[in-house]
Structure formats: structure tokens, C-alpha cells
TrEMBL record:
Residue spans crossing the bilayer: 17-37
InterPro entries the record matches: Mg_transptr_MgtE_intracell_dom (IPR006668), MgtE_N_sf (IPR038076)
Domain annotation Magnesium transporter MgtE intracellular: ranges: 136-198
Keyword Transmembrane in record: yes
The keyword Membrane is assigned to this record: yes
Keywords of this entry: Coiled coil, Membrane, Transmembrane, Transmembrane helix
Name of this chain's protein: Magnesium transporter MgtE intracellular domain-containing protein
Length: 204
């Protein structure tokens, strides 16, 4: 029992010795140093950080603190990504507009092509109808008596008369010219000769 009391007393004595001899003087010295440094104008927080960086155990903790991204850094990163996304969306919209414009142009070209094809068909049809009508006119003049055909052709312009006479057969041509006034028959014959020479020179 006495031994236990003695051990307890020894422990208390050691603790008291540690407090009064080491800990309290150390804390007093640190506090005194901080007061002195502040009076001297030294930034105690910055100095403590610099000291902490040099100490092995504390420096690793401070480095980890520095390398850990802050909320503000995450927010800045999100803003940057949102800006990039907005730019990409703008580029996509521009490309879509370009594609729409090209599609419209292609569609307009296709419509214009169809319109021209239709116009060509109509002109070809009209030309064929005109050819058939002209053949019918020639056939009519050939079937008419020269005495009836001659006065009608005399009323037409010489160019129209020449066009018709150059397409009737030679028998009908001779008979119709015989029924015309000699001066008119001579003029038409001259023009028919010129046309025949042009056609012959064109075929050679």
C-alpha cells in the first residue's frame, strides 16, 4: 500500500517537474517570441507556414492542402467547360444552317431543272405540231387545183410563198407558177433557185 502511494507521488512529482520546468517555460518562451515578432512587424502566420514547409511531417500535409483543388477552382473549370460547350453548339448551329442552305439551293436547282425540262418538252411538242401542221398545209396546196392555189399564194408574202412552194412536189410547183402573173412567177422562181443553191451548198 505504501509502495503504491509512493509510486503515485513520484508520478505526480515528474508531471509537476515537466510542467514547471519544460512545458510552461516553453509556452512562455513561444508566447514571448510571438509578441516580440509582432512588435517587430513580422507576419507570424506566413513565417509559421514557411517553417512548416521545411519540417518533414508538416510539409507533406501542407503540400496535400495546396494540391487539393478548391471549390472555386472547380467552379472555374465548370465555367470553362460550359464556355467550350457553348462554342461547340454555335459551330454545330452554323454547320446546320450551311447544310440547310445547300439543301435549299439543291432543291431550287432541281425545281429549275424540272421547269426547263418541261419547257423543252412543250417546245418540242409545239415544234412537232407545227411540222405536222405545215405538212398538212403543203398537202392541201398539192391537192388543190393550180387555179385555186395560185391566187391564194399570190396574197401571201414572197417569203411565205417560197417556203410553201419549196416543199410541194415539182409537178404542183410547175402548175401553180403557170397560173400566176409572169412577173410574180419569175420573182418566186428566182428566190426558189437561191434557196435550192443554199441547201445544196449546206449539204456538201
Amino acid at each position: 500500500m505504501d509502495k503504491n502511494i509512493e509510486l503515485e507521488e513520484k508520478k505526480q512529482n515528474k508531471l509537476q517537474w515537466f510542467l514547471f520546468v519544460i512545458l510552461i517555460p516553453l509556452m512562455a518562451a513561444i508566447l514571448f517570441s510571438i509578441v516580440i515578432l509582432k512588435v517587430a512587424g513580422v507576419n507570424v502566420g506566413s513565417a509559421a507556414k514557411d517553417l512548416g514547409v521545411k519540417l518533414p511531417g508538416i510539409s507533406s500535409l501542407m503540400k496535400e492542402e495546396k494540391t487539393t483543388p478548391s471549390v472555386k477552382q472547380y467552379q472555374n473549370k465548370i465555367k470553362s467547360l460550359e464556355a467550350s460547350l457553348k462554342q461547340e453548339k454555335t459551330k454545330i448551329a452554323q454547320l446546320e444552317n450551311l447544310i440547310d442552305s445547300r439543301d435549299k439551293k439543291i432543291n431550287n436547282n432541281e425545281i429549275e431543272k424540272q421547269r426547263l425540262e418541261q419547257e423543252i418538252k412543250e417546245l418540242t411538242k409545239a415544234q412537232e405540231e407545227n411540222k405536222r401542221a405545215f405538212k398538212d398545209i403543203i398537202q392541201t396546196y398539192q391537192s388543190m387545183s393550180p387555179g385555186k392555189a395560185a391566187p391564194i399564194l399570190s396574197e401571201l408574202s414572197e417569203d411565205e410563198a417560197v417556203k410553201i412552194l419549196s416543199n410541194v412536189n415539182s409537178e404542183s410547183l410547175t402548175a401553180i407558177l403557170e397560173k400566176m402573173e409572169p412577173s410574180q412567177a419569175a420573182s418566186l422562181t428566182q428566190k426558189l433557185t437561191v434557196n435550192m443553191e443554199k441547201e445544196q451548198s449546206g449539204t456538201e
